[in-house]
## 1
Amino acid sequence: QLQLVESGGGLVQPGGSLRLSCAASGFSLDYYSIGWFRQSPGNEREAVSCISRLGGGTNNADSVKGRFTISRDHSKNTVYLQMNSLKPEDTAVYSCAAARRALCSFLSGEYDHWGQGTQVTVSS
């Protein structure tokens, strides 16, 4: 069974950090570019960050540039999202997705597999 599982979410104070993980089971992420998306109540899903299949290319939304970093570890079949200097407006459910393409994309329709998501809450 092909599955993506996110972890690492939680409650953090403004200015704090979290590292999200996206682990795959049942398939290898080596053939996929990976995206992180987020959605908060009443808002549309928003692309946050993505990484190419080989890891050499990344892209970040303007709202998170300089604060979020995406990376991948092929040996662990896992992709990470390091989130620093978190703000209350970063509060959302964060989901990872895998697209069988070399270059990463911010278009959700390009993605073939999705995780269930992990809640990130930034509040004092």
## 2
Amino acid sequence: VQLQASGGGLVQAGASLKLSCAASSRMFSNNGMGWFRRAPGKEREFVSGISWNGGYTNYADSVRGRFTISRNNAQNTVYLQMDSLKPEDTAVYYCAAARGAAVYSNRREYNYWGQGTLVTVSS
């Protein structure tokens, strides 16, 4: 079982990026999914989460209104649309699959992690 994150890159402040997380197994269609990030010198932090069917979502205060999480269970993929990017959004972004079906912000609720994709936002 693998999670493959992609879509990172180098952009200027104010630009947009869309991250994708492809799961190797349809088992994730029954699980909540999330995005976390780790900036240089900082702890990994919650960015956004989505329930198994996409009916519920949650966002960190720092990204609410700028980022949008979504999923396509038919394609075993979760997305993170990032708009109005800021230099402080620079980090390695990780997708993760939760043990349960709901929305979770605590990383201990997640037991599968992707390898991360780097997002760099220049000022």
## 3
Amino acid sequence: QVQLVESGGGLVQAGGSLRLSCAAAGRTLSSYATAWFRQAPGKERAFVAQISSSVDNTYYADSVKGRFTISRGNAENTVYLQMNSLKPEDTAVYFCASRWGAGTYRLPSSYDNWGQGTQVTVSS
């Protein structure tokens, strides 16, 4: 089991930027596929971005491609989500998730480690 803690959420105006952090307690994330999901009120949890284990390939939902960037920190126990050109429709609780494996995983059910979530609110 990997304990994940997200931070960096907040309130921002449309067009602004935020950087979310996902930190693993006492463990490196470099061997884990790590992803960001988001959940807006009344909606299902949706895939945002994933970074693969070892080779660090990245994958994005079409709705955030070109605006969001997922990356690893130098300490290897942190994964970031840089969010630029934010829109009101990006408002949601953002969750970090990880799993052992080298594949591409876009479904929430594919992940067995989750953080508690961090709120992102984009005002128009």
